[in-house]
Amino acid sequence: MSNKVYLVDDEPDLRRAIERLLRAEGFKVESHGSALEFLARLPAEADGCVVMDLAMPGLDGLDAQDRLLAASTRWPVVFLTGHGDIRSSVRAMKAGAVDFLTKPVKAEELIASVGLGLARVREVADLRARYAQLTPREREVMEHVIAGRLNKVIAAELGTTEQTIKVHRSRVMEKLGIRSVAALVTAAQRLGVSPAGGEAD
Predict the structure, then answer these.
(1) Upper half-sphere CA count for residue 24 (Cβ side, 13 Å)
(2) How far apart are CA 200 and CA 198, in angstroms?
(3) In the chain, what are the domains?
(4) What pLDDT, in 10s, does the model give residues 156-168?
(5) How far apart, in whole angstroms, are the C-alpha atoms of residue 108 and residue 95?
(6) Alpha carbon of 121 to those of 100, 111, 163: distances in Å?
(7) Rounded to an integer, what distance in angstroms lies between the CA atom of residue 172 and that of residue 178?
(8) DSSP E strands, the chain
(9) Helix, strand, coil % over all residues of the chain, rounded to 5
(10) Quick one: pLDDT at residue 197?
């Protein structure tokens, strides 16, 4: 169970104070003084929650979040800001941020937000384990399904029967523990799986 927190803030005193707080709560903390430093040491897969200052020299928090998304890695991010605005908070949340907290941050709010972020990491890890159980053909069918294609269209494109596609589709949903196409699309986004052909028909 992941309990790792990546703390990114250019203010040394505040960074140390937050690090002490998180460690006291049992979290394993890795601190960075800049977004560029954090990104340079980024693991290939999200294994923790990021607590990041919004306004930093060089590369700010929102731009760092964009780079995380561009890498197709769904890192949960909790933003801290001393002078946030509505536009920044909306942009952060639309990009999947866990929370947008104002400095001086309340300990209970930060701990709760980090807990939510780590819960997301565990959910994605479980989803990846389930996805690993899919056969190559089932993954192929999944990519067509999230593209919005009908079974008969998928069957024609893959050179098989509609009934066979129905079986594969059912197995995909069962193995992933998903009941609807909408949930499958969400799962695919969290896994970084793209629709076949890029766009829905």
Answers:
(1) 10
(2) 7
(3) 4-129 (3.40.50.2300), 133-191 (1.10.10.10)
(4) 999 999 999 999 9
(5) 24
(6) 18, 15, 36
(7) 8
(8) 4-8, 28-32, 48-53, 77-81, 99-102
(9) 55, 10, 35
(10) 82
Token representation of residue 58 = 């060089």
Name 195's Cβ contacts closer than 8 Å, sequence gap at least 6: 143, 144, 146, 147, 148, 188
Other C-beta atoms closer than 10 Å to the C-beta of 174 total 12
Tens of pLDDT, residue by residue over 150-193, are: 999 999 999 999 999 999 999 999 999 999 999 999 999 888 89
At residue 72, the pLDDT reads 65
pTM reported for the whole predicted model: 0.81
Taking the C-alpha atoms of residue 197 and residue 201, their distance in angstroms, rounded to an integer, is 9
Residue 72 Ramachandran class (φ > 0 left, ψ -120 to 50 alpha, else beta): left
Q: What CA–CA distance (Å, rounded) separates 175 from 194?
A: 19
Contacts of 168 (CB under 8 A, 6+ apart): 137, 138, 141
Low-confidence residues in the chain, pLDDT < 70: 1, 72, 198-201
